[in-house]
Design brief:
Blueprint (H helix, E strand, L loop, with lengths): L2 E14 L6 E3 L21 E2 L2 E2 H8 L5 E4 L23 E3 L5 E3 L5 H11 L2 E6 L6 H12 L5 H8 L10 E4 L12 H14 L9 E8 L3 H9 L16 E8 L15 H28 L6 E9 L18 H16 L4 E7 L9 E4 L2 E4 L1 H9 L6 E8 L4 E4 L2 E4 L1 E8 L2 E8 L6 E8 L7 E5 L19 E2 L4 E2 L3 E6 L3 E8 L2
Parallel strand pairs: 1-21, 2-5, 2-13, 5-8, 8-9, 9-10, 10-11, 11-12, 12-13
Antiparallel strand pairs: 1-16, 3-4, 6-7, 14-15, 16-19, 17-18, 19-20, 20-26, 21-25, 22-23, 22-26, 24-25
Helix pairs in contact: 3-4, 5-6, 6-7, 7-8, 8-9
Length: 505
């Protein structure tokens, strides 16, 4: 049986893991908003002001830190004034990006802010650069965040909200290299400076402006943005036009034209997926390295505000709705991503999985009045103790824990660790679909108390949850820990995710 040792120095602390790495994304796409978050006040499904309460309850259990809205590609055709005021008077619109369906704009700014308040999550609003105007976005910021008296303040009050909201996170466009305008990097960077200039701080609401950044490994795009705020190799503080820049990366096992099934796949497909998931480490390293040249003090954050698996839609569903099932394979993609995110905590400030409900790698699947927690949901729940914790380096020893996949070597053990509130949390994933792995946790620098462990696995990587079998892939207590002279030992079953927590003695 392959074996490895994970050396963790409990007394050598690394960068803080921002809670915003566990962020979420809700776009007007398929049944994410309408039928997912929003059912309307007349629905028989329990709701508050039209917002579905079982969804809220499930997400609150994750300590959801932020929610990105309204897109995605939809953001750059969304005009916020159409989504305020009495619902029956709001104009409808055609969602040309996703399904060419007509929407009634019943879920708009006030409804989104009410949702964030119910969730206890910070709002992250993605503004319209592609088909909007500087004035439109500037006035949206004013409408939401300004106090006192002004045209937008009076409009907000007329729509029933006296006090301003706190809205820190603002996206300056989305995928301007593609659906957000098919722009050149230089033109997009100029617009980022312009729009950011007119997205004002009102009162004590300080904005964190996020410029629309690169796709995958387009490091040139990142460099073009960084050149707008700093100089090559200099030590000057970057100009304060924007405080973060985004990057998007999706995990695919095959070509874009044939992504494969979410549930029907073989072992080769599984391993190709894990290789693709691991690639995010190289992607983040590349963008971070470019940013380091222009911002060695790391004052500008990297924001991975779209990530996750992308499969062919489920048979019989609208191709424009991007509905896919969610298996144990997807959960292991998520657990591996989080280990990588933790290692990049010095630069990576936020990450948003795509998407929260009923779209792509969702947390939740709804069908009428039923709600299913996906395997990916459980990874977020098991890992929530890492939010705002201090990262610990994990040094892995054991060359046997590898698989050859095509011309690539896949490391099949993934791990990360952190400390918070006098306790350590260790996350371990065995990506090997066929073999268990013996792992020794060599814990140094501090004694630990009685450990507690949980496991997420199933008979097959293809297993998933449905309304009829909601617990097929769900966490359960793991009793396989053994004390050793070095620390702890355990055997990870094939395709499994385990968390180990223990108080520091």
């Amino acid at each position: 049986m392959p074996n490895a040792t994970a050396v963790i120095n409990l007394d050598i602390e690394g960068p803080r893991i921002s809670r915003h790495l566990y962020g979420h994304f809700a776009e007007h796409l398929g049944r994410c908003i309408y039928g997912g978050f929003w059912v309307g006040e007349d629905s028989s499904i329990p709701n508050e002001g039209g917002i579905r309460l079982d969804v809220v309850q499930a997400l609150r259990a994750l300590d959801i830190p932020n929610l990105r809205w309204p897109g995605g590609c939809f953001a750059d055709e969304y005009h916020w004034r159409d989504g305020i005021g009495p619902r029956e008077q709001r104009p409808s619109m055609v969602n040309t990006h996703w399904g060419d369906v007509e929407e009634n704009n019943h879920f708009g700014t006030h409804e989104f802010m009410a949702l964030c308040e119910l969730l206890g999550a910070e709002p992250y609003i993605s503004g319209n650069v592609g088909s909007g105007t500087v004035r439109e976005m500037s006035e949206w910021v004013e409408y939401l965040t300004r106090d006192g008296d002004s045209p937008m303040v009076r409009l907000r009050k007329a729509n029933g909200r006296e006090e301003p909201w706190r809205v820190k996170f603002w996206g300056i466009g989305n995928e301007t290299w593609g659906c957000g305008g098919n722009m050149r990097a230089e033109y997009s960077a100029d617009l980022a400076r312009q729009y950011a200039t007119y997205c004002r701080d009102h009162g004590d609401n300080k904005l964190y402006r996020i410029a629309s950044g690169a796709s995958d490994a387009d490091y040139k795009w990142t460099e073009t943005l960084m050149q707008q705020i700093s100089c090559f190799g200099c030590e000057a503080t970057p100009k304060n036009f924007f405080q973060g820049l985004s990057v998007h990366y999706y995990t695919l096992a095959g070509p874009w034209e044939a992504k494969g099934s979410a549930t029907v796949f073989d072992t080769d497909d599984y391993y190709r997926t894990m290789v693709a998931a691991r690639r995010i480490d190289r992607i983040l390293t590349g963008h971070s390295t470019v940013m380091d040249v222009y911002d060695p003090g790391r004052t500008v954050g990297l924001v991975l505000d779209e990530w996750g698996t992308w499969w062919d839609v489920e048979p019989g569903t609208d191709p424009g709705f991007l509905f896919q099932q969610n298996t144990l394979r997807d959960a292991l993609v998520a657990s591996t991503h989080f280990d990588i995110f933790h290692r990049h905590a010095a630069r990576l400030y936020m990450a948003n999985i795509a998407q929260t409900v009923n779209v792509l790698q969702a947390m939740l699947l709804t069908d009428g009045d039923s709600l299913v927690l996906t395997p990916t949901y459980h990874v977020f729940e098991m890992n929530k103790g890492h939010q705002d914790a201090t990262s610990l380096a994990v040094h892995l020893r054991g060359d046997a824990l590898r698989r050859t996949v095509g011309d690539t070597e896949l490391e099949t053990l993934s791990a990360s660790a952190s400390v918070k509130d006098g306790a350590v949390l260790i996350s371990l994933s065995n990506l090997d679909a066929e073999e268990p792995a013996e792992v020794t946790l060599d814990l140094r620098g501090c004694a630990v108390g009685e450990p507690n462990a949980r496991i997420l696995t199933a008979d097959r990587p293809q297993d998933h949850n449905t309304p009829g079998t909601p617990q097929m892939v769900a966490p359960r207590p793991f009793d396989g820990l053994k004390a050793t002279d070095q620390g702890l030992a355990l055997t990870l079953p094939p395709h499994s995710f385990v968390t180990v927590s223990a108080p520091l003695a």
